[in-house]
Specification:
Number of helices: 13
GO molecular function, one term: glutamine-fructose-6-phosphate transaminase (isomerizing) activity
Function: Catalyzes the first step in hexosamine metabolism, converting fructose-6P into glucosamine-6P using glutamine as a nitrogen source.
Largest sheet: 5 strands, parallel
Distance between the termini: 32 Å
Catalytic activity: D-fructose 6-phosphate + L-glutamine = D-glucosamine 6-phosphate + L-glutamate
Enzyme class: transferase
Protein name: Glutamine--fructose-6-phosphate aminotransferase [isomerizing]
Bound molecules: fructose -6-phosphate
Length: 369
């Protein structure tokens, strides 16, 4: 049932191109417009939405953090992202014009369920992004957009995460389409890019051997740091979470701009630091700032592991290890940048003799608050 792989996690990492393609299937037409008929919230109600709040836990929360960039950019609706376990305890401001998006692979996470119940009690509309048909979270929501990752068995979430991103992009683009923002042309172009992104994920998977080798060489380390900016920041958080869960290592993700406000004090000789470099196009200011960050930490002894787009030559002199990913539109980069981090964590876990599919102390579905 592991399809020839040693672990479910490896199988599920390999299934990501298909999971991504399946999640897009039937939702995008040839002209680049979206048909999300299954989202049974009337377009009129979607036009009234004046705030989006995403609630989720763990990896799904990281998908939500990325969704915020897409939603705010393509719809101009303010979007908050909150850990489901914190949400209802802060007396959040919700009303009938609030769209709450609850993201959950299992559909059974109690923290997320309690958050959405609270939101509905306050009159908000809830859209679930979920991978499990008929589970509790979609049943209790006003609408659901299913991710089509197929069953995810390994405790550490991989293909579900990529499909959550796809679903969130679809929601953001659909909201933009329904509301007719000024980004119409860009939305159509991104929809077309999304249709090709599964091939990019496949391409990343084909080039992972050096990442596995690098992971094995770091098996005796205690700490790995992850840096990113913009959508690369949640990718850094996700890379760190995977490493904690699987390799039981101290791993932390930081927004690269925060380095100078504290974390740079952690940098010491030969400390592995993974840096997710934004696309050099579009957000070029951020790109240049991250390149300076790489120089700064390297000058202080860090071993830099740089994830950068093909063709980005500026990083070459400062990368002790360079991991290439295909160039994508700025907001879609997490779909390709996360994959090497999953492979990295899985291989490190194996090298440390850990149980990859069943990490200690964790359960696949957390049905207690
Ligand atoms: C991380 C992981 C967890 C889950 C979290 C939410 O690899 O698996 O952090 O993402 O427990 O679970 P769902 O998505 O089922 O609500």
């Amino acid at each position: 049932e592991k399809g020839g792989y040693d672990y479910f996690m490896l199988k599920e990492i390999a299934e990501q191109p298909k999971a991504v393609a399946d999640t897009l299937l039937g939702r995008v037409d040839a002209s680049g417009s979206l048909t999300l008929d299954e989202v049974r919230i009337a377009p009129g109600a979607l036009r009234e939405v004046d705030k989006v709040v995403v609630v989720a836990c763990g990896t799904a929360f990281h998908a939500g953090l990325i969704a915020k960039y897409a939603i705010e950019h393509w719809t101009r609706i303010p979007c908050e992202v909150e850990l489901a376990s914190e949400f209802r305890y802060r007396d959040p401001i919700l009303d009938a014009q609030t769209l709450v998006i609850a993201i959950s692979q299992s559909g059974e996470t109690m923290d997320t369920l309690m958050a959405l119940r609270h939101a509905r009690e306050q009159g908000a509309k809830v859209l679930a992004v979920c991978n499990t048909n008929g589970s509790t979270i979609p049943r209790e929501s006003d609408a659901v957009l299913y991710t089509h990752a197929g069953p995810e068995v390994a405790v550490a979430s991989t293909k579900a995460f990529l499909t959550q991103l796809v679903a969130c992009y679809l929601v953001a683009l659909y909201l933009g389409q329904v509301r007719g923002t000024k980004w119409g042309d860009e939305i159509r172009a991104v929809v077309r890019d999304l249709s090709r992104i599964a091939e990019d994920v496949e391409q990343v998977l084909e080039t992972m051997e050096p990442v596995r080798e690098l992971a094995r060489s770091l098996a005796s380390k205690n700490t790995v740091l992850f840096l990113g900016r913009h959508v690369g920041y949640p990718v850094a958080l996700e890379g760190a979470l995977k490493l904690k869960e699987l390799a039981y290592m101290h791993a932390e993700g930081f927004a690269a701009g925060e380095l100078k406000h504290g974390p740079i004090a952690l940098i010491e000789e030969d400390l592995p630091v993974v840096v997710v470099v934004p696309s050099p196009k579009g957000r070029s200011v951020l790109h240049d700032k991250i390149v300076s960050n790489i120089q700064e930490i390297r000058a202080r002894g860090a071993r830099t592991i740089v994830i950068a787009e093909e063709g980005d030559e500026t990083v070459v002199p400062y990368a002790d290890h360079l991991i290439r990913i295909p160039a994508t539109p700025v907001l879609l980069q997490p779909l390709v940048a996360t994959v090497p981090l999953q492979v990295f964590a899985c291989e490190l876990a194996t090298a440390r003799g850990n149980e990859v599919d069943q990490p200690r102390n964790l359960a696949k579905s957390v049905t207690v608050e």
